[in-house]
Each structure stands twice: as C-alpha cells, then as structure tokens.
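Section 3.1: Structural characterization of target chains.
Under the original work plan, the team committed to producing a structural model for every single-chain target entering the pipeline before any wet-lab resources were allocated. The record below documents one such target. The sequence was received from the expression subgroup and is listed exactly as submitted; it comprises 192 residues.
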Amino acid sequence: MRLTLLPLALFSVVSALGQDQTISFKKTSGVQLAGAGNGQILVSANDYWGVQRAAADLAIDFGRVTGKNLSFTADGATGAQPIYTWQAPTSDVNYTLGPEQQILGPQYSRTKDFKKTVIIAGTIGHSTVINNLVKSGKVDVTKIKGKWESFISKVVKNPLPGVDKALVIVGSDLRGTVFGVRSWVQYPRFAS
C-alpha cells in the first residue's frame, strides 16, 4: 500500500518545487526513461568527478527500481574510467599536503554510440556536451547561469545526432548538477 502512494506523494513534491510534470499515468510527449530496453546516461569526461559519480549512481538506481540498470557513458573518455589525483592534508594545524594519491571513478560503458541516450547530465562550463547544447540554443541556461547550486531539467528534442529526445539535467556549478542528478536518484520520475 505504501509503495502505491509513494509516486503520488512525490508527484506533489515535484510540482510544488516548480519542476515540469515528469510523472505520467498516460502517454505523453516526454522521454521514456525505463522499460524501453537498454538506455544510457551520458556525461562529458571533462565534467566534475562528483557529477560522474552521481550519474553512475542514477544508472544503478534505475536498475533497483525497474530491474535493469541504465548504462553510464562519458563523451570524450580516453579510458575505462576516470582517474582523479589529489593530495590529502597531513595536518589540520599547518595545512600541509601529503603525497599525491589516485582515486578511480565509476566504470564507463564501452560504446561510441549515443543512440540509446535517455539522460544527459552536466555542468555549464565543465561539460562539452552541455556547452554544445547551450551554444546550439537547444538548452536555455539564463535562469541558472552564474547562480550557486542551481539546476534545470527538461526534455530536449534531437540533443545529439541519432537521439530523438533525452532528459537533460544542467547545473550551474558542481553542486547544482549533483543536486539535479541526485533528485532523480532519490525520487525517480518516469515519463513515457
């Protein structure tokens, strides 16, 4: 009984936040995110580690809800997964840094074909894919550009060659993009 009411409760929350309606109980002009085969989430390899981690988590969470994970792909990736380097602080008092360490990011699906893309996520100024969508006029970011921790999400027609439509999540900065992607992780919404 609780699971039946959960989507309705989430629908009310999403509508109250001013987001477009993404839950539908009948055929709409949206994009089918689940149940249509093997879809994928696309990010740019040059976007932040946190954005890539959140997108990979979303791909897995779709599997938890629907029984089939989305694949996770990065445009411009040169390897199977990103490698991040950083230096951990060794002292809180002197603010000194230790030796450089490497962290492996999420595994990318091995594909050069973006035709199965159903979600595109990225950060203004840090994602080649998002920057190209903004440049082409397919995504308007004037409401969030230059703001802190802001995001928009909308269905875009023909965002990439061979992709009829996809849900595009754009953040104004790292946290904005992660919030946008995580909102789908926490409250998966399906439009068919």
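The chain has one domain: 18-186.
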